[in-house]
Amino acid sequence: MFRRKTSSWLVAMAVACISAGPAAAEKIAVGNFGVSANGMPYAVALDKGFFTAEGIVVDGIITSAGGGTSLRNMIAGGVPYGEVNPGVVVAAIMQGADLRIISDNVLTVAEFVWAVKSDSPIKTLADIKGKKIGYTNPRSTSQALAQMVAQKAGLQPNEVELVRTGGFGEGYAALGTGMIDIAPIPEPLWAQYKDKLRPIAFASEILPPLSNVVGVTTANMAAEKGDFIRAVIRARRKAVEFMIADPDAAGDIVAKHYNITPEVARAAVRNLVTSKTAGVEYWGSGQINAEGLKRMIDVQKSLGALQGDIDVMKMVDTQFLPEDIRKPK
Description:
It is built from 14 helices and 13 strands. The protein is α/β, with parallel strands linked by helices.
């Protein structure tokens, strides 16, 4: 009888294992992954096995040059989790898209430096009137910040010319050819090219904390892939903690995924894990920074990218965050 019971138990366990099967592989969408710093924690999470440790398989990262392209990629690809700038998400929600902001991932814009060629006559922000400032794509963070830089210089929007370049690397190239006069050079491009450029403004010095990148999902994915979404957020949080604890090891990982030298990647990671903008860190745990998020939406409204009364916190769903960071700051 004992043998029959044991045999029955083993059969039941085998059936259960077959039924459960391996975790289904999913992709995630991360704007500017492999180019700008916001996506670096995902490189670390992949390399260190943090996704696997959380019981999920992430078999690819869909990337884009930022702006609305990132969100369209996520929706079109049926991807459960995306990382996008909040202005794009809010605009889409106001147009009827059933989206939720589920995490607050990058809490400042400290990765941005606005730079000119080393021989440029532009020395400071006071010299940018009438000049061409690059940005990546419409409704991207870089577009909003370019106009903020102009405002910081005491200029009206029509006193500078904003030029779309399509990407940060393309912006650096456009600066070199004279297509633009000033380019946003985010990390790690700044660590790579700073010896060839001259900075005229650092975001961490001239701008307040602005929630730069948020995690987002659709209503359908929230209902169908909730466990996967929670696991992505936990794995990313582990990656951020690893980066803070060992920035050089994290930099070596980033170098492989971003196709840059370890020296450049280490410098970029060290710069950002030690960065504080009015006391606020660059990479967040996922916890919602309500003031930074509202401030970014106000920036978008002031520039005409968003209109009307917007209560962004009504667009936030914190159910996917770990319990200890579920309450907004």
